[in-house]
Design a protein that fits this description.
The structure holds two protein chains of two kinds. Chain A is 48% helix and 9% strand. Chain A is of the alpha/beta class. Chain A has a seven-stranded mixed sheet, sandwiched between helices. In chain A, strands 6-9 form a two-stranded parallel sheet. In chain A, helix 2 links the parallel strand 1 and strand 2. The longest helix of chain A is centred in the middle third of the chain and has 33 residues, at 301-333. Chain B is mainly alpha-helical. Chain B has a five-stranded mixed sheet. In chain B, strand 1 (447-449), helix 20 and strand 2 (468-469) form a beta-alpha-beta unit. In chain B, helix 9 packs parallel to helix 11 (230-254), helix 14 packs across helix 15 and helix 16 (351-366) packs antiparallel against helix 18. The relative contact order of chain B is 0.10. Classes of the chains: A alpha/beta, B mainly alpha. The A-B interface holds A 29, 32-44, 167-168, 170, 204, 207-210, 251, 253-256, 300, 302-303, 332, 338, 341-342, 345-346, 349, 353, 356-357, 360, 364 and B 4-14, 16-17, 187-191, 226-229, 231-233, 235-236, 239, 243, 247, 250-251, 254-255.
Chain lengths: 487, 552
């Protein structure tokens, strides 16, 4: 009886892992499935840009990088775009000062938006604030691009995005983001390759089937879509994933563009601990999106199944890698039936295959981006493959535990509360501090807050946006009267 | 320099599955209408020629019986052989037969298991004929030439004889053809590469001799590569194929039978014996050698296709796309002439490629430009240099002469042979002997029987005592260990008359010395005599007999 139970468990685990392994491979190699899918010219040659747009850049304590970023952002090759920098004025005068200097230097190109006066700091609140400003100014815009403070967009990116919007009729264009620093730590190469696979292959597959958690930056939204859904969800840990699922549920077309020369380059998290924390936040965000059940509105059953799979993907994948060798060991020592014992080697085989593919991809990566891959980088990739899976699995366990215990509040760093009163701090509210904000952190700021709140747009100065309490955060979306709320 | 075709990739909305399938099916039919018009009748002809008379011709030989007993054992007992499996062949061949039987109740549908084996071979044959057509097309043949290749393979009497026997090589053929078809996939997708790897893995697991063709397949796959995804096509094909093939040694490893050791069979032990211990079949130039006798035997059925194939191979070295196929035939011919052991049914591995190359040679003579398009981007610069300068009408004329000449040579002898092979014949003597045993012998009697009788006696006639397949009598330690008496011997007479009978079957010969004939069956083929062994006779103890623990 016990035997039967244990054998059926082994059967179940093996078959599940084979399915996960095969689908993982399918996702990873989707871009290379045929030569045409990997054709360098597949995106077409961009013509003259026609759609006015906005780049939104939410910055917080980014005084070290924001200047350089803005210098690059104003030089993009597009005739009609505006860079909106969202800054919490009283909280972050240093960044504000730098940005104001840039506004003087590039009049009409950059505009400062004040972050709403709430205790919570997260990206969606800032983005929605910027959307309101656009609305109030009656500024003509057709698309919004999202950037982080350290993101250097490629000069030709906007032309391409503009072209793809018109060419495909897509509601969203997701362009590539690529981590670059694979050297120095054993886990970085694996992390870099994750991006390499996600942005050029996996996202394309997800766009194809229409279940699409998006990336957090270098992503562009069409105006009509943003207005229809009423902006970003301000309570979600991974607003990027959420808005992607919303787009999918509405059956919107999402275009994925990965051109190596044009990717937005980023760095891996500074430490393994930061990496794990970031990953736990993502995973927890995915669980949150999953439990909100918006994916159940996806048009077809296939998509709903895929949604379960894609939202749960990180969990499945994390565990497959860890369990594969254990499964074989079990089958060997416990005298499982022969067919089952042979089958248990398949997930192990897929794990080995994944390592081989990683090696090839690291080589390709090195060639495409002109960075030299040393023998020890390959070696690290091989011996680090299993520990990396273990780290992912641990992050998955932590994310599940946090979700189950209802802890969605994100650990505050010391500066976040330094200038706030206890009443302003709502302990149950999410205050994410993740990769998107993982910039250099200055000493706690106690200087007097900047009381004059103004918005610089060419020569116009406006009244400050209305003060909003944390609980009102969702209500601001009502500004968009043109559309139904999707939640 | 390669020219890239600019394609704009647009994400397409997904239709519901049934609608997608309908659309796909309609487009597929539309695209392949003209091919189907030629191919479907060819398949019908191939199937009919193969099926009519396959129950009574050719005569029953031992291997089909062995494989069917092993398939039966897998289905009903969950083991790879009713005796100790000694890794003489990788098991995929009879696993496929067993799976087909499990799905369709194969062993219950016929009077004899041999007939079920014939059915399996019919399926393999029709599949192979179809795949030959597709492979021809993918190599660049016109539809008539591809049909010609299929028909040559379907109608050649030599093919017919050997493809009717339940041999593992007949199951290898469709897998190999499939591997090449997928390796030459025009889409050049990763999926096709994986398919090619898996198909080749199945071929090698069906009969390990297919492994010699690996270089030819790799060559084909490489020729068809595209720089934009070749690295992944190649690695996936190689890895998936290797992993599938690795299941065989892994199986042995899990059973503790990979390495040679005391008291058990082993994969490496048998492989070592097969590669070096087995005596060769001699030189093909030596008129008295085994291999020469075998080749002469092949040639009694037909010479034309083998000869045409060998000549065509020379012609087909011209277009680079055909060279891997030439390599296949060269490798298979090398197996015959190298002087090592050549299995009796090896000709099966030559014939489909002879058919393909013969049709290919006609295409070369005709000057089909498609043959030179190893990669579609090379058309322009290759065409001018490589094509013979002869005018079109002359090339067509020569090609027509070649085709007519071939037809003139084969038409009469093939028609005559096919007529004989599809004619009604009396039941094979072995089948009659089986019926006689079922009617006249108690179920507890210990029988020594021919391979092809075993499954019927066990499955249909329920001989609980488990008849013993003749060559296991002196080779399987388990059989020898439990042997206390023998009651009946039911074998073709030639078993006792071969020169080394005393050495190969000592126990059998000793038993027959103490037996008297009780029934005799002679229907024009092998003569089968049933002997009843004297009750007082006892086989010698195991230690004195058993010349080898390895195979016949």
């Amino acid at each position: 009886m016990l035997d039967l139970l244990w054998i059926s468990l082994l059967w179940g685990a093996t078959l599940l892992m084979i399915v996960v392994g095969v689908t993982t491979l399918t996702f990873q190699l989707y871009k290379w499935r045929t030569p045409e899918a990997n054709d360098p010219d597949r995106y077409g040659e961009p013509d003259t840009p026609q759609l006015p747009g906005v780049i939104m850049l939410a910055a917080r304590f980014e005084d070290k990088v924001i200047g350089a970023t803005l210098d690059q952002m104003v030089r993009l090759d597009h005739p009609d775009y505006l860079v909106m920098v969202i800054i919490d004025h009283p909280d972050d005068p240093e960044t504000l000062a730098i940005v104001r200097a840039k506004v003087q230097r590039y009049p009409g190109r950059i505009m400062v938006v004040e972050y709403p006066d709430t205790a919570i700091h997260n990206k969606p609140i800032g983005l929605n604030a910027a959307l309101r400003v656009l609305q109030e100014l009656n500024h003509p815009w057709q698309w919004v691009g999202i950037a982080d403070a350290e993101d250097l967009f490629h000069r030709d990116l906007l032309r391409l995005v503009d072209y793809r919007f018109r060419q495909t009729g897509a509601a969203v264009v997701q362009a590539g983001v690529q981590l670059m620093d694979f050297e120095n730590s054993w886990w970085r190469a694996a992390n870099v390759l994750e991006y390499y696979k996600w942005f050029q292959s996996r996202l394309k597959f997800q766009a194809r089937i229409g279940v699409m958690p998006l990336g957090g930056n270098t992503v562009f939204f069409r105006r009509s879509f943003l207005e229809a859904i009423g902006g970003w969800d301000e309570t979600c840990l991974t607003e990027d994933c959420k808005i992607g699922i919303q787009a999918s549920a509405r059956g919107e077309k999402i275009d994925v563009v990965y051109i190596e020369a044009m990717v937005t380059r980023e760095e891996t998290p500074p430490t393994l601990r930061a990496f794990v924390r970031q990953r736990v936040r993502w995973m927890q965000g995915f669980i949150q999106v999953f439990s909100e059940r918006q994916w159940m509105q996806l048009p077809t059953a296939t998509q709903r199944v895929m949604a379960i799979y894609i939202l749960g993907f990180q969990f499945f994948q994390a565990f497959t890698g860890v369990v594969a060798p254990i499964l074989v060991a079990f089958a060997l020592t416990q005298k499982a039936p022969m067919v089952l014992a042979l089958l248990t080697t398949v997930p192990l085989g897929i794990s080995i295959l994944n390592i081989m593919i990683d090696i090839i991809m690291l080589r390709q990566f090195g060639r495409s981006f002109g960075s030299k891959v040393r023998l020890r980088d390959y070696a690290g990739l091989v011996w680090g493959a299993y520990p990396f899976q273990v780290v992912l699995a641990l992050a998955a366990v932590r994310a599940c535990a946090r979700h189950l215990s209802g802890r969605t509040n994100w650990v505050k760093t010391e500066h976040a509360g330094a200038h706030m009163t206890a009443a302003q701090m709502a302990p149950e509210q999410p205050v994410p501090v993740g990769a998107a904000y993982a910039g250099p952190i200055p000493a706690p700021l106690t200087s007097a807050a900047d009381e004059t709140v103004e918005i610089d747009l060419r020569t116009i100065t406006l009244d400050p946006p209305p003060h909003r309490a944390p609980d009102d955060a969702a209500r601001v979306l009502d500004l968009f009267t043109t559309s139904e709320r999707s939640r | 320099m390669t020219v890239r075709v600019a394609t704009t990739y647009l994400p397409q909305p997904l239709l519901p599955l049934p609608a997608r399938l309908r659309v796909t099916a309609r487009f597929w039919l539309e695209r392949h209408r003209r091919s189907l018009v030629l191919l479907l009748p060819t398949l019908v002809v191939a199937g009919a020629v193969h099926a009519v008379g396959m129950g009574s011709y050719p005569n029953w030989v031992d291997d089909p019986g062995t494989y069917l007993s092993q398939a039966w054992s897998l289905q009903y007992e969950g083991t790879l052989s009713p005796y100790s499996y000694f890794y003489d062949h990788a098991p995929a061949g009879w696993i496929q037969i067993a799976v087909w039987s499990m799905l369709t109740g194969g062993f219950d549908r016929y009077d004899s298991a041999i007939s079920f084996g014939n059915e399996c071979m019919l399926i393999a044959k029709v599949t192979s004929v179809g795949l030959l057509f597709v492979l021809g097309r993918r190599l660049g043949f016109g539809r008539p030439a591809a049909t010609g290749a299929s028909l040559l393979f379907a109608l050649c009497p030599l093919v017919l004889v050997y493809s009717r026997w339940t041999f593992l090589d007949n199951l290898v053929t469709p897998w190999l053809l499939l591997a090449f078809v997928l390796a030459l996939s025009p889409r050049r997708s990763v999926t096709a590469g994986i398919g090619a790897g898996l198909a080749f893995g199945m071929a090698a697991l069906t009969k390990e001799t297919a492994l010699v063709l690996l270089p030819a397949l790799a060559w084909s796959l490489w020729q068809n590569r595209d720089p934009r995804n070749w690295i992944y096509v190649s690695i996936m094909a190689a890895f998936v194929g290797s992993w599938l093939m690795a299941m065989y040694p892994v199986y042995a490893l899990l059973k503790g039978e990979l390495f040679p050791g005391e008291g058990h069979t082993s994969l490496l032990g048998t492989a070592g014996w097969q590669l070096s211990g087995r005596s060769g079949s001699g030189s093909i130039l030596d008129p008295a050698s085994q291999v020469r006798g075998m080749v002469d035997g092949w040639l009694t059925y037909d010479r034309a296709l083998l000869a045409a194939g060998l000549v065509a191979a020379v012609v087909c070295t011209g277009p680079r796309r055909l060279r891997p196929v030439v390599a296949v035939l060269v490798l298979q011919v090398f197996m015959v002439v190298r002087g090592g052991y050549v299995p009796f049914m090896h000709v099966i591995n030559l014939l489909p490629w002879c058919a393909l190359l013969t049709a290919g040679a006609v295409e070369v003579v005709r000057g089909n430009p498609e043959l030179w398009t190893g990669s579609r981007h090379r058309i322009a610069n290759r065409l001018g240099r490589r094509l013979p300068a002869a005018p079109v009408w002359l090339r067509d004329y020569v090609a027509a002469v070649v085709v007519l000449g071939l037809l003139a040579v084969v038409a009469v002898p093939w028609a005559t042979s096919l007529q004989q092979m599809t004619a009604a014949r009396p039941r094979p003597a072995l089948e009659e002997a089986t019926s006689w045993l079922a009617d006249n012998v108690p179920r507890t009697a210990v029988l020594v029987v021919h391979d092809s009788m075993w499954t019927d006696l066990v499955h249909k006639h329920r001989f609980d005592s488990r008849p013993i397949i003749v060559y296991k009598l002196d080779t399987d330690p388990a059989v020898r260990g439990s042997l206390t008496r023998l009651d009946y011997l039911a074998l073709p007479d030639w078993y006792y008359n071969i020169p080394d009978a005393q050495a190969k079957y000592p126990t059998l010969m000793a038993a027959r010395a103490h037996a008297k004939p009780v029934a005799r069956f002679d229907n024009g083929g092998d003569v089968v005599t049933v002997w009843k062994v004297d009750r007082s006779w006892r086989p010698a103890p195991a230690s004195t007999a058993a010349p080898s623990t390895l195979g016949p």
